[in-house]
Design goal:
It is built from 7 helices and 28 strands. It is α/β, with parallel strands linked by helices. Bound molecules: adenosine monophosphate and magnesium ion.
Amino acid sequence: MRTFDEARRDIVRELGLLIHPSSLKREIAALSGSLGRVLADEIRADRVYPPFDRAIRDGFAVRSADVAPGAKIKLVGELKAGDTPNVTVAPGTCVQIMTGVAVPQGADAVVMTEHTRAEGDTIVFENTIAPGQHIVKRGAEAANGHLFVNRGTRLGVAEIAAAAQVGAVELQVYLKPRVGILSTGDEIVPAETIPGDFQIRNSNAYSLAAQVSLAGGEPVVLQNAKDTEQDLREKILHGLKSDMLILSGGVSAGKYDLVEKVLRDLGAEFFFDAVAIRPGKPTVFGVCKGKPVFGLPGNPVSTMVTFELFASLALQMLAGQESRPLPFLEARLGEAMQEKPGLAHFLPSKLSWPDGTPTVAPTRWQGSGDLAAVAKSNCFLYIPADRSRYECGEPVSVLPRHDVL
Ligand code: AMP
Ligand code: MG
């Protein structure tokens, strides 16, 4: 059986074969609506940054050689942000300036207002000042043409600000991959209905759609499939019109777990159909009619975890991003633990900072169907397959739920 690392390597390899970056479709997005989109172009400096020697404090532009404790220097002018610096700081003079102004000629430092006192037209200084203090030199941040944001970057707040700075108010981005979401199971009913005594509302369609959106995809939720070959085949074929298909349920060893069989009959090639993890062991990954397909186990916590571990990786690559490792954090274990060895565990857990140190404690749960438990968690505690006993206070790895942390 694959470890989850091996399974992830299978996905990276197969998606690498399926995707040709030049063939990924693009569109133009308004900068204001580009949060979370993946950049298909580069964002480069349109001039040098800063475009002038920029004062970064409110105070006085001075010749540093003039300034000493008790020095009295004549004030000859004032500049506010945006002003043309048409005044020169001659020896023995200074100019009052505000944050963001272009430092006037002659000055080589800025003294903060707090370190001065005014006596009429004269400014009295408290300390010495080093040349260059509180000035960012023209071009020190970026030369003209400097690469601010690379192709394939998911646009976050800082990237959007950088784009705005260089005037890139329309951006070329990759189209969001459309991800078909197909839940399966005779017992599954739509969430808006009153279930019969032995029926279950469809939560996976909702959690998967939310996860797809968070990961940068466009969810396409299909109608739940019954556990029959015919219904599965019909709905899978429909789902394969999307760029990728995610099924939930029907991949275990039960008599009516038919997803793999139906996919195989449709010509799918599988790269794994089990991973040494709990929850989520029966996870299936293959390619069917040129589209990546995931069959995730139907228990809601398994579905959630296996999406994060596997499907989101494929989605990132389809979205035009580079694949990246799982974003584990280190924390201190809040209590002793004993788990069965053999499978790597991803346990719904709570990360907190009781004394400033990240500390994690597993949430009590009744197994991978327990949505009440996972809804109280904010991360998954990772227990490697070869460990069983952990002592309180040991360092451990956690996978944050990035939707809430
Ligand atoms: P399966 O993987 O099909 O064997 O399903 C495992 C468990 O997950 C069963 O208890 C199902 O009722 C439950 N389950 C399957 N699909 C869903 C779904 N879409 N929403 C909520 N629970 C589900
Ligand atoms: Mg089922």
